[in-house]
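Q: Given only this backbone (246 positions), what sequence would you predict?
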């Protein structure tokens, strides 16, 4: 006797046929599945190993940078200098300390250049070069840092250092043009109050006092809460004293 199947029964039969076909495919292709599974597992192992390597490399980079900083900040002791102490080195004079710090920062940059520690080491290499009067090397280090790490927390400070180098190198006119262009258009990621302050400083260096005063006044008027406002007021005769370190 014939019997009409319900829609539910038809769907169930179709599912069972599909499931049976799937089992048959698995039995016939078990080797492929095993190899595929091994490939996925191998890929996962590679990823885990890479992450572990990256973490280990970053840790080593941080340790190397910390040691370089200990040397850079080490106290001077002409009587009992001990530069070989890994935890608390001391140096007989600033020259010896600077030379050893420079060697360690160079090693960090060379071995871990793409890590955050390597980038920070580049900043300190520029600082040491500037302190030793080698402004060209300082500029090269800092330009390299900015080119590779424009979004780094130290990028603004480094760019300000580069502006100071330009003023010291007698490139004030070019710097004024650059600063005015940034103030009238895209500021290239630098705060406008900082740009006005740097413009004022540069114009002062060029002995263009009235233009410098205008730049400082503009800063005070538009950004009265700026960290640069007190120094700008002082330079325009509106303040009483310069803040320490300005």
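A: Predicted residues:
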């Amino acid at each position: 006797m014939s019997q009409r199947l319900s829609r539910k029964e038809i769907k169930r039969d179709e599912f069972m046929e599909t499931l049976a076909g799937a089992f048959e495919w698995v039995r016939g292709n078990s080797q492929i599945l095993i190899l595929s599974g091994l490939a996925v597992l191998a890929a996962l192992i590679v990823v885990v190993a890479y992450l572990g390597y990256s973490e280990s490399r970053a840790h080593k980079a941080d340790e190397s940078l910390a040691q370089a900083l200990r040397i850079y900040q080490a106290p001077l002791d002409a009587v009992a200098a001990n530069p070989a102490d890994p935890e608390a080195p001391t140096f007989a004079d600033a020259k010896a300390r600077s030379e050893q710090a420079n060697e360690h920062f160079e090693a960090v940059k060379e071995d871990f250049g793409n890590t955050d520690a390597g980038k920070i080491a580049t900043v300190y290499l520029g600082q040491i070069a500037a302190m030793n009067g080698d402004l060209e090397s300082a500029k090269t280090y800092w330009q390299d840092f900015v080119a590779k790490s424009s979004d780094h927390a130290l990028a603004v400070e480094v760019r300000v250092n580069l502006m100071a180098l330009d003023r010291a190198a007698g490139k004030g006119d070019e710097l004024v043009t650059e600063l005015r262009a940034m103030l009238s258009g895209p500021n290239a990621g630098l705060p406008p109050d900082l740009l006005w302050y740097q413009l004022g400083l540069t114009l002062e260096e060029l002995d263009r006092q009235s233009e410098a005063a205008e730049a400082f006044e503009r800063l005070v008027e538009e950004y009265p809460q700026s960290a640069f406002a007190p120094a700008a007021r002082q330079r325009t005769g509106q303040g009483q004293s310069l803040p320490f370190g300005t």
